[in-house]
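Q: I'm a student working through a structural biology exercise. My instructor gave each of us a protein and asked us to get a predicted structure, then write a short paragraph describing it. Mine is DUF4440 domain-containing protein. I'm not confident about reading structure output yet, so if you can add a plain explanation after the tokens, that would really help. Here is the sequence I was given:
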Amino acid sequence: MLRRRNRNALLKKIGFITIIVLLLWLIARTIPYLFQADTSDEAAAVAEEFYKYEQTGDFGSSWELFHPLMKERFPKSAYVQNRAHIFMQHFGVETFELEMEKPEHEFDVTVIEGVKPFSEAYRIRVTQKYSGTFGQFDIVQTCYLVEDGDEWTLLWYYPNQKNEDTSQVDKSH
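A: Happy to help. First, here is the predicted structure for DUF4440 domain-containing protein. I'll explain a few features afterward.
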């Protein structure tokens, strides 16, 4: 009879420990999802800030939110000059309306072919609705937000273009 009690006590202890381990495992699996909403919102806020600067023609401030790969691709002075020249002078627009889709969390993302993939990123599809000299038109662009150190930074998507020559900006204007 004493052995049966010891066996039952042992089974209760094993069951209790199993339940505790299972609960700890569930908690550990749930914690990252609690913070995911915050990171998604932070990434979306950077994209929104970038395009708000673009809407007001503050291309220097929007350039500051670029990932270093984008800053290599577009030197600041050339970016500011070309954005203003193309959109304001050529297209005759002063501002645009903006629509952003909800950010999608992705893993092992290749944003620029030939560049090491980012372990994780948020993809956001952005639609800029222009009204200018040539009528109304939309530009739809896929953007990625990745962490660079402690900050979220923005990259544009270049699916079939290697990061070979980053000085492809037209400097004739």
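A: Here are two points you could use in your paragraph. The first strand starts at residue 96 and ends at 100. Helices lie at 2-55, 59-64, 68-73, 76-90. It's a good idea to check both against the output above yourself.
Q: Great, thank you!
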